[in-house]
Amino acid sequence: MVINISKKVVIVDDTMFMRLTLKNMLQDFGLEIAGEGSNGIEAVTLYKRIKPDLITMDITMPQKDGIEAVKEIITHDPEAVIIMVSAMGQKAKVVQAVSAGAKDFIVKPFKRDRISEALERVGIDISADKSSEEVTGQDEEVEGADDGKESKEAKAENLEDDSGDDEKKSDSNAQSTEE
């Protein structure tokens, strides 16, 4: 007999649409959404009260940003598993968040497979995924740490590589239309 104990997740983002999108995807992976917040102060409070297996957190939020919240949570619990959620073009802030203790990051807008990869890299087992249907998300790349072995510098290079790929594609498309 296999008992699947659901992992508790807290989602923190100041945009309700992003929380809902991420919530639906995480629930499709069989994860329990134990709490939601809209700023860094709520993130810290929810983390201390719920003690989730995972917290996802936006970087740019009112009252207390995600980086400050990461620092406070890691001070409280150095083993906290935090995945940052960032918009494209926030490379420096992602590097700061990882340096502060975040384990991985997802770039908005996100795709189901990229969220799955990030969850696996931080040790959240989703092999008992209860949904076989593809969740339609928006296309974007996600890179980050695998099991903590990758250096902070390598994570930053991965982010830079992804951003560069998009820029190269844009440049290539622009050249094609010019010719």
How does this structure look, described?
With 179 residues, this protein is an alpha/beta fold. It has a single domain, classed as Rossmann fold. Helix content is 46%, strand content 15%. The chain contains 6 helices and 5 strands. It has a 5-stranded parallel β-sheet with strand order 2-1-3-4-5, with helices on both faces. Helix 3 packs parallel to helix 4. The protein is globular.
The largest sheet, given as strand count, sense and whether it forms a barrel, is: 5 strands, parallel
Low-confidence blocks of residues: 129-149, 160-179
Going across the biggest sheet, name each strand in turn: 2-1-3-4-5
What is the terminal-to-terminal distance?
64 Å
Q: Indicate the percent of residues in helices.
A: 40-55%
Number of helices: 6
Per CATH, the class reads Alpha Beta
Please tell me how large the radius of gyration is: 17 Å
Net shape:
globular
Strand content: 15-25%
Topology:
Blueprint (H helix, E strand, L loop, with lengths): L7 E5 L3 H13 L3 E6 L2 H11 L3 E5 L7 H11 L5 E6 L3 H10 L3 E5 L3 H10 L30 H27 L1
Helix pairs in contact: 2-3, 3-4, 4-6
Summarize the entry for a quick read.
With 179 residues, the chain is α/β, with parallel strands linked by helices. It has helices at 16-28, 40-50, 66-76, 91-100, 112-121, 152-178, and strands at residues 8-12, 32-37, 54-58, 82-87, 104-108. Strands 2-1-3-4-5 form a five-stranded parallel beta sheet, sandwiched between helices.
